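Holo model, 3-phosphoglyceric acid. Inputs:
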Amino acid sequence: MTIDTVLEKATIIPVIEIADAGVAGDLAQAFLDGGLEVIELTMRTPAALDALAAIKKAAPSLITGMGTVLNERDYKGAVDNGADFIVSPGITLPLLSYAATQSVPILPGIATASEAMTAMDHGFTALKFFPAEVAGGAPYIKALGGPLKSLRFCPTGGVSPDNAKDYLSLPNVVCAGGSWIATKQMIDGHQWGEITAKSKEAVALYKEIKG
Ligand code: 3PG
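Output:
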């Protein structure tokens, strides 16, 4: 899978944290029922890799990225457990050099023009903008589009139903990510119906702007 394929299917990407891999199948189904095709599971709990494997077993069609990948070791672990793509909050030169040799693609995280140019130097033009709201929000991404016209962004971090339209209205924003669709509380509480409802709302919000 290429990052272009991931971004073609992505609308608003739920950024999720799973503490118990046992919920992975029900959670994946809740997203599919809500019309989402792409999710990001963060590598922030001891259960993350098991949860990734469980999602891919229960719902192979759900395009699942492993987020919070910081280095080559994390990358390998994610790929070994079935990740369709990789997401990082930032970039390091070793991570970019490694990613450039891999068939499982990365969405590298950047927050400045210099970081974006470093990613471009390694061949990456689809980037996560993180942490979006505090790093400058939609006006900042719009400004980056002046000199860095070849780049496409997926903002995450502080994106919400209240400001998602500001981001998605920009031509250089192709999708967005956020934790509000499936919060830790909703996942721990097994609120699958609520997660499906939030997923449907997110898809509708995206389609309202992007068609
Ligand atoms: C994160 O890394 O936590 C994600 O970007 C989600 O951020 P959010 O909780 O502000 O949506």
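Strands lie at 12-16, 38-42, 63-67, 85-87, 106-107, 109-110, 126-129, 152-155, 176-178. The radius of gyration is 16 Å.
Archived with the compound record.
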